Amino acid sequence: MTRTSPARMVLYVISALVLVYLILPVLIIAPISFSSARFLTFPPPSFSLRWYQQYFANPAWMQATRVTLTVAFFTVLIATPCGVAAAYAISQSKLRIIHMALLLPLVVPIIITAVGIFFVYAKVGLVATMPGLVLANVMLGLPYVVISVLAGLQSFDPAQEMVARSLGMNRLRSFFAVTLPQIKSSVVAGGIFAFISAMDETIVALFISGGQYQPLTKRMFTALRDEIDPTIAAISTLMTVASFMLVLLASTRGKRGG
């Protein structure tokens, strides 16, 4: 019978405390979303689905939901092929400067990025437009696709593509016939993370969205400022569940790809 060392026990305890710390907000918000009280109250005095019903029956919330899903969909549609092409170019050329430039949205503080995007959009007339929201989220989601696809390419043997090219295929055809099928799990995972990034983005949306083109995150922020009610908790719970399921799907795809 093996005994657990004290150091390992301390590691387990610290890991458990970190997990509880990360999950605690969800454990509080989820019950509040089912509260029958008029305001955010924890623990809820009784349970009800009224705030979920209010969310689905409210035209403003539904409009914001459509904007969010539309932006996320087009972000994936644009960022995924661009990220795959960029990752493939990086893996072939080994140009670290390109890699670093594509990862800048993850390094630069998001508030600085948001201010920069706003001033550029103000010059070209993209503030409070759907194309503006999509392009901004493509820029923010692109690094996730690049990182995921690069990880897939590192486990792929490039000699297989070279063999296909030696048999008469050009580079583009050999990529689609040989390389892409073997890294498709990484591509799918990158697209999923780009979708989640677009769905959850708040800071940039606060600067550049407006009018009928306001995503859920901005409308939630406005609702918190004007009037706090458990509808926001219901939306937060739904978004958390959706993000969790997407991350689980990306993780599953990644394991299958591995």
TrEMBL record:
<feature type="transmembrane region" description="Helical">
    <location>
        <begin position="67"/>
        <end position="90"/>
    </location>
</feature>
<keyword id="KW-0813">Transport</keyword>
<feature type="transmembrane region" description="Helical">
    <location>
        <begin position="134"/>
        <end position="153"/>
    </location>
</feature>
<protein>
    <submittedName>
        <fullName>ABC transporter permease</fullName>
    </submittedName>
</protein>
<keyword id="KW-1133">Transmembrane helix</keyword>
<feature type="transmembrane region" description="Helical">
    <location>
        <begin position="12"/>
        <end position="34"/>
    </location>
</feature>
<dbReference type="InterPro" id="IPR000515">
    <property type="entry name" value="MetI-like"/>
</dbReference>
<dbReference type="GO" id="GO:0005886">
    <property type="term" value="C:plasma membrane"/>
</dbReference>
<keyword id="KW-0997">Cell inner membrane</keyword>
<feature type="transmembrane region" description="Helical">
    <location>
        <begin position="102"/>
        <end position="122"/>
    </location>
</feature>
<dbReference type="Pfam" id="PF00528">
    <property type="entry name" value="BPD_transp_1"/>
</dbReference>
<keyword id="KW-0472">Membrane</keyword>
<keyword id="KW-0812">Transmembrane</keyword>
<feature type="transmembrane region" description="Helical">
    <location>
        <begin position="174"/>
        <end position="196"/>
    </location>
</feature>
<comment type="similarity">
    <text>Belongs to the binding-protein-dependent transport system permease family.</text>
</comment>
<dbReference type="GO" id="GO:0055085">
    <property type="term" value="P:transmembrane transport"/>
</dbReference>
<dbReference type="InterPro" id="IPR035906">
    <property type="entry name" value="MetI-like_sf"/>
</dbReference>
<keyword id="KW-1003">Cell membrane</keyword>
<feature type="transmembrane region" description="Helical">
    <location>
        <begin position="231"/>
        <end position="250"/>
    </location>
</feature>
